[in-house]
């Protein structure tokens, strides 16, 4: 009989994996390798999802930076691109920009739901992780 109970330490680690961009989960994976512990599906799901989200954010940031640099070389378009970038990166609340507020809210949502023992659903990302974890 398989034990489906999610322990408190697993929920804490899964919850801390998101705000640290997968670092806590990666350390948990390394510790699991050294102790020969079997990683449970709940932990696998959240650790791999947080690492996937972190890598996707870095790649998206690089892609948007590349596109913005190309668009900045085009006359008249560079003014529009500059205004959009200034709007999205200007401080709104406690010196955080709109993009930063959205990112913090998304990471907090994922962390809190993981701490509650729920599998966080993020369109496309969760489906990819769910197919590969099981």
Task: Please give a handful of descriptors for the protein shown.
6 helices, 134 residues, mainly alpha
Quickly describe the structure:
The chain has helices at 8-17, 23-35, 41-71, 77-89, 98-115, 125-133. It has 134 residues and is mostly helical.
Give the helices and strands as they follow along the chain.
Answer: HHHHHH
Distance between the termini: 18 Å
Helix proportion of residues, in percent?
A: over 70%
Task: Classify the beta-strand content into a percent band.
Answer: under 5%
Shape: elongated
Oligomer: single chain
Quickly count the helices: 6
Number of domains: 1
Number-wise, the strands total 0
Q: Can you give a write-up of this model?
A:
The mean pLDDT is 88. The chain is an all-alpha fold. The chain has one domain (8-133). It contains six helices and no strands. The chain has helices at residues 8-17, 23-35, 41-71, 77-89, 98-115, 125-133.
Layout: helices, strands, pairs:
Layout lengths: L7 H10 L5 H13 L5 H31 L5 H13 L8 H18 L9 H9 L1
């Amino acid at each position: 009989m398989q034990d489906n109970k999610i322990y408190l330490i697993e929920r804490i680690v899964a919850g801390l994996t998101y705000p640290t961009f997968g670092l806590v989960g990666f350390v948990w994976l390394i510790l699991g390798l050294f102790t020969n512990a079997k990683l449970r599906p709940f932990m696998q799901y959240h650790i791999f999802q947080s690492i996937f989200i972190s890598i996707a954010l870095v790649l998206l940031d690089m892609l948007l930076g590349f596109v913005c640099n190309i668009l900045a070389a085009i006359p008249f378009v560079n003014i529009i691109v500059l205004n959009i970038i200034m709007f999205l990166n200007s401080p709104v609340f406690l010196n955080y920009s709109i993009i930063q507020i959205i990112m913090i809210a998304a990471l907090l949502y994922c962390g809190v739901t993981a701490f509650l023992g729920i599998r966080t659903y993020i369109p496309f990302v969760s489906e990819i992780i769910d197919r590969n974890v099981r």
